[in-house]
Design a protein that fits this description.
By secondary structure, the chain is of the alpha/beta class. The protein has helices at 53-57, 72-79, 97-107, 117-123, 130-138, 165-179; strands spanning 5-6, 15-16, 22-28, 31-38, 41-47, 62-63, 115-116, 151-152. It is globular and about 45 Å long.
């Protein structure tokens, strides 16, 4: 059996594509969002993806409609500004123990709230690891579901974001509008 490999961005390593992958995309207030999932859960979120991104990125995957996608209803609702618990969306992601710990900490940050890279490092018992936290978040294959956009640099500066700083700021603004705090 030939393995299919997918490049998941400049800061994300090449990973094998698991069997049974499906994909979809949704149009959000910030543009299209591509999604890929295995039978276990969402394995990739591609911000700003062209509607047919997976045809070239995931040639062995099957297209499905967003509401038939694992967690699709919640993702579509959230992107539309409706209440949705993205913590209930199943994920199928792998990383180092440190990455998984950082991603779990980021996933627990409430919508509309930010934490610093240093806050995450302290919470993990590694107070000098703020830069390593940023690197772990840079390898996040499912932004939005692991909301790395909610993690900012000390002093409130945006820090980095795979989708670009403007996209990060737009996501934070969108969440503030959802929360009625904008």
């Amino acid at each position: 059996m030939r393995e299919t490999f997918v490049t998941m961005g400049a800061s994300i390593p090449v990973i094998p594509l698991p069997p049974g992958v499906s994909w979809t995309y949704v149009i959000s207030p910030l543009g299209p969002v591509g999604l890929a999932a295995t039978p276990k859960g969402v394995c990739r979120v591609e911000l700003g993806a062209a509607p047919r991104w997976a045809e070239t990125e995931l040639p062995a995957a099957t297209h499905v409609f967003p509401h038939a996608f694992p967690g699709g209803k919640a993702i579509v609702a959230w992107l539309s500004g409706l209440p949705a618990d993205l913590l209930k969306v199943p994920l199928d992601v792998t990383g180092t123990d440190f990455q998984m710990a950082v991603w779990d900490a980021a996933r627990r940050i409430p919508s509309g709230v930010t934490r610093t890279y240093g806050d995450i490092a302290h919470a993990l018992g590694k107070p000098g690891a703020a830069r390593a936290v940023g690197q772990a978040l840079g390898g996040n294959p499912v932004p939005l579901l692991i909301p790395c956009h909610r993690v900012v640099a000390s002093g409130g500066k945006p820090g980095g974001f795979t989708g670009g700083i403007e996209y990060k700021l737009q996501l934070l603004e969108l969440e503030r509008k959802f929360q009625g705090t904008a």
